[in-house]
Amino acid sequence: MFNTVTTHIKHHNPTNLGVDPDLSLVQACLQGDSYAFKKLYQRHHQKVRSTLFQLCGSDGLDDLVQDVFLRAWKGLPKFRQTAQFATWLYRIAFNVASDRRKVLAKMRSQSISVEDEQLANLADVDLGRNSDHQPALTQMHYQDLMQRGLAHLSDDHRAVLVLHDLEELPQKEIAEILAIPVGTVKSRLFHARSAIKKFLEAQGVEL
Amino acid sequence: MKDRNSDEYFDKNFDESFDDPSHQSLLAFMKQNKPIAPSADADFEQRLFAEINKYPQRSPQQTAHQPLKRWLPMMLIIPTAIAALVSLNWINGRNQYQMATNQISDAEKLAIEQSLINSWNMTEDNTLLTASISNASAKDVQILQDLSPLEYE
Q: What is the pLDDT of residue B11?
């Protein structure tokens, strides 16, 4: 299970990261300007949505995204403006994903077995039927394999792999989001890659 | 040599530009086949902001004064309640006194007064008696003190 992160970001070096372009919008939000929050939403919702999808799957994704932005809006007065807004938002997303995964831990295994069956049918019937659609279907198959590979990882490894290799966040930011040392991020990333590689190769993917 | 599984080992030897050939093909595969999140419902944004508008943002000044506002009614209620209780108690005592005095007739008042005078006089007599006993005792003590050296000699 993911551990819910409750600590605050303690330090931030503005010379390395530059002035956060979101801060003026955050200040406008604190004055009650929900239009400014709409701008923040438009800037970040795709990455938040994608991360939540990689971490939790598509089931109830809209609810999760809504939960993240609602928590962010309510939590804005507590946001320390020395930190990056995006990092803070990712941390909320990570906590929402953790909560969700705790609730759906049992249901997940059932849904995966159903998906396995559906995928097998898809591979047997559709791939053979129409060769024109084969590249698209092959990619769908690989995407599904990726999702199952992610589900196969431990929660710690999955989070690091998603944030670094799929969402392309720097290791330092991931360390802040997950409240772990950078060395641990690197270690988890290495083991996560090894584990997913092993899974994919076992499924017949040549890497 | 450091353990190859330790965080410290990875911290020093595994950075953003880490080039492991066995992982490069994996990274390419993952990027090419990254699962794409399904798009949101058409009215999702509208629903989200309708929900957000239910929770208006408070300004920092309002947030700072919030504890005072919260406790102010309690701070007013407690002294008011104490004052009301004291007043009630005083009024109640006064009523009882008036009820008692109104119910006593003049004859009873005189009898009570006489009883008080008698008990006062009796107290005075007892005090005189006690004083005389204590005086006698003092004399006895003096005699004993005068006699005591003789016993030791």
A: 66
CA atoms of A113 and A199, how far apart (whole Å): 16
A159 is written with which tokens? 């989070």
- The CB-side HSE value for A94 (13 A sphere, CA atoms) comes to 28
ipTM of the complex: 0.71
Per the model's pLDDT, the better-predicted residue between B88 and A112 turns out to be B88
- What would the pLDDT profile of A1-31 be if each residue is shown by its tens digit? 455 544 444 444 444 446 778 899 998 998 8
Q: Does A175 touch chain B (CB under 8 A)?
A: no
pLDDT: which is higher, A192 or B71? A192
Q: Which of A167, A184, A186, A197 to mutate to test the interface with B (most CBs of B within 10 A)?
A: A186
Quote the tokens at residue B57: 């943002």
Could you tell me which of A62, A82, A80, A86 has the C-alpha nearest to residue A14? A82
Q: How far is CA A191 from the centre of its chain?
A: 18
Interface contact flag, A32 B52, Cβ < 8 Å: no
State the pLDDT at residue A14.
Answer: 43
Contact (Cβ atoms closer than 8 angstroms) between residue A150 and residue A54? yes
Instruction: Write down all domains in chain A, each with its CATH number in brackets.
Output: 11-103 (1.10.1740.10)
The separation between CA A61 and the C-alpha centre of its own chain, rounded to angstroms, equals: 11
Contacts of B118 (CB under 8 A, 6+ apart): none
Helix (H) or strand (E) holding A121: helix A105-121
d(CA B40, CA A52): 13
Cβ separation A31–B59 shorter than 8 A = yes
**Residue indicated by tokens 């004083």:** B131
Closest of B58, B31, B45 to residue A39, by C-alpha: B45
CA distance A163 to A182: 13
Of B23, B40, B57, the CB nearest to A65: B40
pTM of the predicted model, to two decimals? 0.61
Residue B54 in this model has a pLDDT that exceeds 50: yes
